[in-house]
Specification:
3-stranded antiparallel beta sheet; Arc Repressor Mutant, subunit A; single chain; mainly alpha
């Protein structure tokens, strides 16, 4: 009989070789939950021709005062490689949702700016995510969401100081 819970199956396999299981189970649970959440959010955003990564860039730009940022700032805020940030910006520019502008303070820097079309897509994406209850997160009541958020904040806070939080 197949085990319906892959995390429990992984825990049992780990236990056959190693003593402490708690850290491993937390890690596998988080990775599995993350994959499930991303899959659901991608499904919600797909009708808008958006991936979650592209939506993150657009949303981040929409949160800035003048709705533009250097590509390297996007990279740092999203915790991604520079080439990944460039790829995302290229795809968003092709769609007409962002434009590239020279930085008036440093002509070596290119700014990524949200377009009117990009603002409309952000609003449509936010609406879709709200309607979907943010995917699997919507299955948790408010107290559990708050508790999970607090636990994740504690985990991020325990990261070595040289890592971004």
């Amino acid at each position: 009989m197949q085990d319906p819970d892959p995390v429990e199956r992984a825990r049992r396999q780990w236990a056959e070789r190693y003593a402490d299981q708690s850290g491993f189970v937390v890690l596998v649970s988080m990775l599995r939950s993350y994959a499930l959440m991303v899959g659901e959010l991608e499904r919600v955003l797909r009708p808008l021709q958006l991936t979650l990564s592209r939506f993150e860039v657009l949303l981040l730009l929409s949160f800035t005062r003048d709705q533009r940022l250097p590509v390297m700032k996007l990279r740092d805020l999203l915790l991604i490689h520079g080439s990944s940030a460039t790829y995302l910006v290229d795809r968003l520019a092709e769609a007409g949702w962002v434009s590239r502008e020279p930085d008036p303070g440093d002509r070596r820097v290119s700014l990524v700016a949200l377009t009117d079309e990009g603002r409309a897509v952000v609003e449509a994406g936010v609406s879709a995510l709200l309607d979907a209850g943010f995917g699997t997160i919507g299955a948790l009541d408010e107290d559990r969401r708050r508790g999970l958020s607090d636990l994740l904040a504690a985990l991020r806070g325990s990261a070595p100081p040289d890592l971004p939080r």
